Amino acid sequence: MTDRIDTLLVANRGEIARRIFRTAHEMGIRCVAVYAEADAAAPFVADADEAVLLHVGYLDGAAIIEAALATGAQAVHPGYGFLSENAGFATDVEAAGLCWVGPSPEVISTMGDKLAAKQAAVEAGMPTLPSSDDPTRADDVGFPLLVKAAAGGGGKGMRIVESADALADAVAAARREARSGFGDDTVFLERYVAKSRHVEIQILGDNHGNLVHLGERECSIQRRHQKIIEESPSPIVDAAMRTRMGEAALKLASAIGYRSAGTVEFLVDDTSHEFWFLEVNTRLQVEHPVTEMVTGIDLVREQIRVATGEPLGYDQDEISFTGHAIEARLYAEDPSHEFLPAIGTLHAYEPATTPVVRWDTGVGEGSVVGVEFDPMLAKVIASAPTRVEAAQRLALALERFHLGGVVTNRDFLAAVLRSPEFLTGDTTTDFIHRVGPARHRELDSDEMARFTVAASMWVQAHNHAHAVVLPNVRSGFVLGRIPPQRITWEVGDDTITVHYRSRRDGSFVFGVDAENGQAIIHGWSADHIDIEWQGLRRRYRVTRHDRTIYLSDGRGTAELHQVPRFVVPGTDAPTGGLVAPMPGVVLEVRVVPGDVVIAGQTLVVIEAMKMEHHMNAPSDGVVAEVRVAEGDQVDNGELLIVFESDLEEES
Description:
Blueprint: E1 7-10, H1 14-26, E2 30-35, H2 43-47, E3 50-53, H3 61-70, E4 75-77, H4 87-95, E5 99-100, H5 105-112, H6 114-123, E6 131-132, H7 138-141, E7 145-149, E8 158-161, H8 167-182, E9 187-191, E10 196-205, E11 211-223, E12 226-232, H9 239-256, E13 260-269, E14 275-281, H10 288-295, H11 299-307, E15 324-331, E16 333-334, E17 340-341, E18 344-345, E19 348-350, E20 358-361, E21 368-369, E22 376-384, H12 387-399, E23 402-404, H13 410-418, H14 420-423, H15 431-435, H16 445-465, E24 485-491, E25 494-502, E26 508-512, E27 515-524, E28 528-533, E29 536-545, E30 548-552, E31 557-562, E32 577-579, E33 584-589, E34 596-597, E35 602-608, E36 611-616, E37 621-626, E38 633-634, E39 639-643
Parallel strand pairs: 1-2, 1-4, 2-3, 4-5
Antiparallel strand pairs: 6-9, 7-8, 7-9, 10-11, 10-13, 11-12, 12-15, 13-14, 15-22, 16-17, 18-21, 19-23, 20-22, 24-25, 24-31, 25-26, 26-27, 27-28, 28-29, 29-30, 30-31, 32-39, 33-35, 33-38, 34-37, 35-36, 37-39
Helix pairs in contact: 4-5, 12-13
């Protein structure tokens, strides 16, 4: 603890580093960034007052402390993830004479071990679910159960197990993920409650014994046990329940001497509203903005104030809650393929100016999304007087976001937020499986025609604007009758050819496959086109990269690839085999040539973005060739397994 911080080192990256910088700068505090080589061009590095390269990475605590001392920082803020809940790192920070912005190392150590945390909760009189630290004692816990990493979080090192025969594989996989993500492969078993909600209480304490809670957040909508939509308040928590949960959280916090910001998580039965203790997160949570927006309290500011020894200066009765806030996590991932992480370059990345929402983002246009880190691109947060208005505002902000170059969950998030089930508060942890929101936007024939016409008109207007021969001649003007202009587009799995001819009045006659119509360009620029097609006028945001056009129409973004008129022959895509859906490292190869495999059988396990992904046989077949081995780095689309014949033809 120190009485003054004028320089703060943030031991993290991406959007959380930028978010901490923002508050620190508002407090008049200089900020130091640390960054890995892969992040050299990342926006957070440019946002800092100065930055230090970490040659090993964000888990190199010694190098981070050395950077803090070398730059004259008095304090270290860990953000979340990486070393934020590493008691040894916190101890080393304090031993170096630096201020640790967070709870004490002793509390981190106790609460970071989920088994020790559960014991502390029991001693504090909190209800807990049946569990065991012995993975062989599954019968004592009962099925279905969860295998959970003792030092984990964020869905890593977690598996649902329905029966005893699946336990061994689940434990082994959870251990590997836990070791990779947290450096500790300890796991435990806990009863799984299917029809439930995740509700957490935000706590805040100082070094003078003052403790308050800032209400609850519900974080039930998850995929791969990782939250994607969070909100405050919870749609099922009333004032009385909030009081009971808040008092339970503060009782535990008081028992362990908690200071700084933290979260006590509960599992809530959807029917009875009975709740059980899950864990304590001794750090800032990803979803902390929704609490800030309903309470007006800046949690990063409070963390820094507490670290310098200041008292909170308010008690529980002075905390009020206004309106509703909802956060959506924007990920580089493909919901249509079981939310597999995606990579690429963000050729288009421009949030809409309205409706006004909060964007906490770690990337920008031109950012490269790789496999080294978590695939979260941004947190988008909306607040409003009512829950429905907040949901609709957030959905519209996502839909109007000009975004292209990397596959994301944007359309899926908007579909969740606009679903009747979400709007009525029916948000249990099985929401995605039970409700089945659309995984991506499906364009109907009219929308497809509008996008391809708009793209074609933008291209012809762009070509005319950059013409060097007869630039003053109206676009499309010809002497005599010649065949119409033609552009072919690939949109997803569809190939569409557009024919058009200019008219004397400046309009265009179009043919889109079998449909004919008239288009009028009302306005054009390098990044927009205002076009009327079949009597409907719409303005599109446009970005062009090579032969790809990204068009946003206020409902989402379409990606159109212009097919060249003359195609250079190339190699065909591999057939009759299993290919990697993403870059990663091979953890396991479970077959050898000659093995007979059945549909759904795991053949190869790949680690990407700190998560395991099982590559399964699409149908029955026989392995002819194995092209990878454990430890190999593979690229997206790389052939892993060759079969004796196309699996679809196997009988």
